[in-house]
Specification:
Number of strands: 2
Structural class: mainly alpha
Oligomer: single chain
Strand order of the largest sheet: 1-2
Radius of gyration: 13 Å
Distance between the termini: 31 Å
Helix content: 55-70%
Shape: globular
Strand content: under 5%
Number of domains: 1
């Protein structure tokens, strides 16, 4: 699915999908219900969170002994906050309810120990 032009102008070139609808945010909420490994994140969130930098970074930190124990919910929440929520204002074609839900979800996890 193509990101709407109004949204795209606020994001990096490597961003190809954002959770700009309630349905997409609910998929993230579902994935965040339990510990989320790197492999689970790939399976459950690839089509919802589409950003090359996000996935490249997750691959890097998700490797090795520590990576297997890393709860990606915390890391993904911090990344969304630092790269989207704190950097841009909600674009007009991003569902306001989805933005609010995403903020609540991110704030629930980003302060936890990762």
């Amino acid at each position: 699915m193509r990101i709407e032009e109004k949204i795209k102008k606020y994001l990096n070139e490597g961003t190809w999908e954002v959770p700009n609808t309630v349905t997409k945010v609910k998929k993230i909420e579902k994935a965040f219900e339990n510990f989320l490994s790197l492999e689970d994140a790939k399976d459950k969130l690839w089509g919802v969170l589409g950003d090359d930098e996000l996935w490249d970074s997750m691959e890097t930190i998700g490797k090795g002994k520590r990576g297997a124990k890393l709860d990606m919910r915390v890391w993904i929440s911090r990344w969304i906050h630092n790269h989207w929520l704190s950097k841009i204002r909600r674009p007009s074609d991003w569902d306001p309810k989805a933005w609010e839900m995403l903020e609540e979800l991110v704030n629930k996890y980003r302060h936890l120990k990762g």
